[in-house]
Amino acid sequence: MELLVLVPRSNLDILGSNEEGIIQLFGVDNEVLNRIAKRTHVDESGCWIYVSGKARYSTICYGGNKHKLVHRTVYELVVGAIPEYMVVMHTCDNTHCVCPAHLKVGTVKENNTDRTNKNRNGSPKNTINTAKINFQQAEEARRRYKAGESMGTLSRYFGISIQSMSRIMKNQLHTTGVLFVGGRNDWDRLMDMRIINEESGCWEILRDNRYGRIMINSKQKAAHRVSYELFNKCTLKEGEKVLHKCDNKYCIRPEHLFKGTIKDNTIDMMKKGRHPIQKLIPKKVEEIRGLLNENKTIVSIARLYGVSRTAIHSIKSGTTWAHVQ
């Protein structure tokens, strides 16, 4: 087998992908490159394919018994040093290619963007291949399982393993194949983080803080606000709040959310007795109104409920708790 010729940077422009040109050019005489050349062949697309095992990226051992990626080694020896924190990308999208003309340096972000643009992202963690089952199908499988169908029947129907179906039923696996193109969108990531509360029907996202959060465009945002915006395809304005019908602060289910102002949020909390500084609840206010109708004094009522005389007077005049009859 003839040695594959690896060329210096100055000859890359005339290299192209012509096999005859590759064999004629020889600009680098290096022991490591010669070892690589002996295990390399040129395919129909013009890529220089380094054959070594079944790994996604091939490695070679040299320089103190250290294993290094072959494509990075070729780039360093033929083109030049790789800047710190940079990766070597394949313009041909063939991970086994070591042709210098098909290699370029870039950042990790540029590499991820390139993979997404070319639809080369692997299946996300804790998701099933979206070609087999999507989010709506997983929800259908859960409904049918509750209705009495066996897990084996469902796994055969949807074309996935019983193990995967079991994880779906345990809410350990959330398939989010809706509009899946290249990589997961923000809605997919949000659905991956949820836990379904079977009793309340809430989609809970549990975190250490008061409200669950998710990273969107490099910024931490409240998960329930993100859920509302994505589901309703809108952008909340400054001052607009997202309230919970279910009173579960961890819930991100769109059907349990509604938009309102700060005032709406405060009134809603007061109605449900959830205001952090609130001593009275609607039931107690009704009792107070009853005592006022019985001509009890404001002072005695205030002492009875542990509030100020002003609070009782405001209830009597309708300044506060006007919504409670």
Quick recap of the structure?
The protein has 325 residues and is an alpha+beta fold.
- Gap from first CA to last CA: 95 Å
Whole-number total of structural domains = 3
Mean pLDDT: 75
**Structural class computed from helices and strand pairing:** alpha+beta
Strand content: 5-15%
In DSSP terms, counting alpha (H) and pi (I) runs of 4 or more, how many helices? 14
Q: What is the global morphology? A: elongated
Can you count the beta strands?
12
The ordered H/E elements are: HHHEEEEHEEHHHHHEEEEHEEHHHH
Low-confidence stretches: 6-27, 123-131, 174-183
Any overview of this molecule?
The protein has helices at residues 12-15, 19-24, 31-38, 70-79, 108-117, 135-146, 151-158, 162-169, 186-192, 223-232, 262-271, 282-293, 298-305, 309-317, and strands spanning 40-42, 48-50, 59-62, 66-69, 87-90, 103-106, 195-196, 203-204, 213-216, 219-222, 241-244, 257-260. It is an alpha+beta fold and 325 residues long. The chain has three domains: 9-117, Homing Intron 3 (I-Ppo) Encoded Endonuclease, Chain A, CATH 3.90.75; 135-260, no CATH class; 282-317. The strands form six sheets. A two-stranded antiparallel ribbon has the order 1-2. Strands 3-4 form a two-stranded antiparallel sheet. A two-stranded antiparallel ribbon has the order 5-6. Strand 1 (40-42) and strand 2 form a beta hairpin. Helix 7 crosses helix 8 (162-169) and helix 13 (298-305) packs across helix 14. The N and C termini lie far apart (95 Å).
